[in-house]
Amino acid sequence: MAKQKSERRCPAGTVALGVDETVETAYQIVGGRVQIEWKWDTWENFYLQSPFVFGALECIERAKSTIRVQANEDTVLRPLSAEELSNPEDPELAASVLQSLTLFLKQIVQEKYFGLALSESEKMYRAFETYVKKADKQRAIDCYSRFVTGFPTSPFIDRMLHYIQDISLGKDLVVEIPENDEDAFLSILTQATDADPLQNLSLLKKFEERFPNSAHYERIIDMIIGEYDKLGDEYQLNHYLRKFIYTYPSSSTADQKLLMLISVQRKSGEPSWYENGLRFLLLYPESELIGTVRKFMGIDR
């Protein structure tokens, strides 16, 4: 009997399996939910939860993955070896593996069937639309350049050009997020990338505008602050740090945000930094950061 491996815990946003990875271990979802993103941009993503299995066939065949699997929420995965998949002793596991393989096959047939009905220009335009919806400006531009070269007389060019002009003028792309805050939050965790703060801000500010009463609002404002910090935008940092501090004064990170605001204001020469320093001393006398504030104010040398 194969030795039972320990469960793998994946916080929201964790990539459990990447495209083109050689799959040595398959996983059964014990709790939580993951998004399956195909290698091909025009194929639709979908979600899996317990008790589905991913990577089964690739694990048995020692093949490379054609999917990217990312946790949309805190997720627990049970590792499965090729031996366990080939000779499952648990009838429930056998049923889950079969059900999962059937689902993946159904998705592949569906995508290939619809794909056959599309011309090459339609496939590329569909990919372009995907980049626009994700606010992925650079890939949208690259796709447009290839499209114009390959299909110079296509009627899609005028529509694509409209978006490219918006990008050139510095306008935000039309960002689409789901209609409820829970799915919208998970979508943002999935789409956010370290490489493009502006793309992330487009998604985050759409959420900020649409779901001001969401339980995830504090996290969204925190993420917006992080993106503006990457960009070094002191004006926006000043605004969002104030918003966070006054909206969530009891947050576990409120003292960090106030110190960050003080630092930004000192750097820009804004005199109110000293007043905020006094506020820090009054509100967070037990904070580990108080020594830094006291040095800023000249109390400690």
Verbal overview:
- The protein has helices spanning 56-61, 82-86, 91-116, 120-133, 137-150, 156-168, 181-191, 197-210, 217-231, 234-247, 254-268, 272-283, 290-296, and strands spanning 8-10, 15-17, 26-31, 33-38, 46-49, 53-54, 67-71, 75-80.
- The strands form two sheets. A four-stranded antiparallel β-sheet has the order 1-8-3-6. It has a four-stranded antiparallel β-sheet with strand order 2-7-4-5, with no helix packed on it.
- It folds into three domains: 8-116, Sandwich (Jelly Rolls), CATH 2.60.120; 120-168, no CATH class; 181-296, Alpha Horseshoe (Serine Threonine Protein Phosphatase 5, Tetratricopeptide repeat), CATH 1.25.40.10.
- Helix 7 (181-191) runs antiparallel to helix 8 (197-210), helix 9 (217-231) runs antiparallel to helix 10 and helix 10 (234-247) runs antiparallel to helix 11 (254-268).
- The mean pLDDT is 85.
- It starts with 7 loop residues before the first strand and ends in a 5-residue tail after the last helix.
- With 301 residues, it is α+β, with helices and mostly antiparallel strands.
Task: Draw up the topology in text.
Elements: E1 8-10, E2 15-17, E3 26-31, E4 33-38, E5 46-49, E6 53-54, H1 56-61, E7 67-71, E8 75-80, H2 82-86, H3 91-116, H4 120-133, H5 137-150, H6 156-168, H7 181-191, H8 197-210, H9 217-231, H10 234-247, H11 254-268, H12 272-283, H13 290-296
Antiparallel strand pairs: 1-8, 2-7, 3-6, 3-8, 4-5, 4-7
Helix pairs in contact: 4-5, 5-6, 7-8, 8-9, 9-10, 10-11, 11-12
Which series of helices and strands comes N to C? EEEEEEHEEHHHHHHHHHHHH
Do you know the CATH topology of the largest domain?
Serine Threonine Protein Phosphatase 5, Tetratricopeptide repeat
- The helix content, as a percent range, equals 55-70%
Query: Which CATH class of the largest domain applies here?
Result: Mainly Alpha
Instruction: Give the overall average pLDDT.
Output: 85
Number of β-strand runs: 8
Percentage of residues in strands: 5-15%
**How far from one another are the termini?**
66 Å
- Uncertain runs: none
Q: Any idea how many domains? A: 3
Shape: flat
